[in-house]
Amino acid sequence: MAANEEDSTETVASASEDHPLSKTETRAAIRVFISNPRFWLISLGVSSLAVLFEFQVFLPIYLSETFSLPPAQAGMASSAFPLGCLVAVFSGGFIYDKLSKRNIVYTMGATLIMAVLCLLSLRLLGVYDLGAGLELVLTIALIFLFGFAISPAYYIPMSVFSIGFGGKHCGLLVGLIDAFAYFGAMMFDFIGGAVANKEGGWEDFILILIVTSMLATIIMTAFLYLDYRDSERDLELALPS
């Protein structure tokens, strides 16, 4: 067992030393990051997804005002969102490693399309009178599915990309991408709060999320495709002619 652990450690160390950025200083690494289209795509994609994640901040208020729930019950009902994230990330980590990069493009694209459909369904629930009880159950189910749909695309591709592309600077790369994400979330908190505070503002609030979700789907799918294409090209260059 000890010998296997030593071999594993040596392999990781060797891979780190062989990385193109292994001898690059911080400033030079940042220049490499910002000159790569994948960095901007993943940063914009994660920023869009961070906006969608901010929905959970507003969820207790949304449920309380929409269904006249007491704050405690609205808080408990909103736990469907992190529960969906928990299930998706836990299972997604196993599935992600077994997929090819080509299949990851399709899988992540499909989950993000599911997120768009969840938001569209939330928007349409208010159009049809299904009864308060049924609407509440459907809303909680859609919130669960929404969290399930967006969390793998938010957490997993960024981490894998940062480790592979950043090398020893992966922590710096994660920090830069997260900075974009927090900036997007901060801006949405101001805008979303102002919109939701208006009379009938929740419909416009959901509409903003729908547009953001569509943008996140396009941007993240483009990033994953570009990452797949570049990995195929790197593999071809590595193979002996």
Task: Describe it.
The protein has 241 residues and is mainly alpha-helical. The chain has a domain at 69-233: Up-down Bundle (Growth Hormone, Chain: A), CATH 1.20.1250. Helix content is 86%, strand content 0%. The chain has 10 helices and no strands. The protein has helices at residues 2-18, 26-34, 37-53, 55-67, 71-77, 80-98, 101-125, 132-166, 170-196, 201-238. Helix 6 crosses helix 8. The longest helix is centred in the C-terminal third of the chain and has 38 residues, at 201-238. It is elongated, with a radius of gyration of 21 Å. The model is unreliable at 1-15 and 234-241 (pLDDT under 50).
What are the main properties of this structure?
single chain, 10 helices, mainly alpha, 241 residues, Growth Hormone, Chain: A, disordered C terminus
Helices and strands, with pairings:
Layout: H1 2-18, H2 26-34, H3 37-53, H4 55-67, H5 71-77, H6 80-98, H7 101-125, H8 132-166, H9 170-196, H10 201-238
Helix pairs in contact: 3-8, 3-9, 3-10, 4-5, 6-8, 7-8, 7-10, 8-9
Query: N- to C-terminal separation?
Result: 38 Å
- Uncertain stretches: 1-15, 234-241
Describe the global form. elongated
Report mean pLDDT, rounded to a whole number. 83
**Total number of β-strand segments?**
0
- Our count of helices gives 10
Cα radius of gyration in angstroms? 21 Å
Could you state the order of secondary-structure elements as H and E? HHHHHHHHHH
Helix content: over 70%
Mind describing the biggest β-sheet?
none
CATH topology of the domain at 69-233: Growth Hormone, Chain: A
DSSP strand (E) fraction? under 5%
CATH architecture of the domain at 69-233: Up-down Bundle
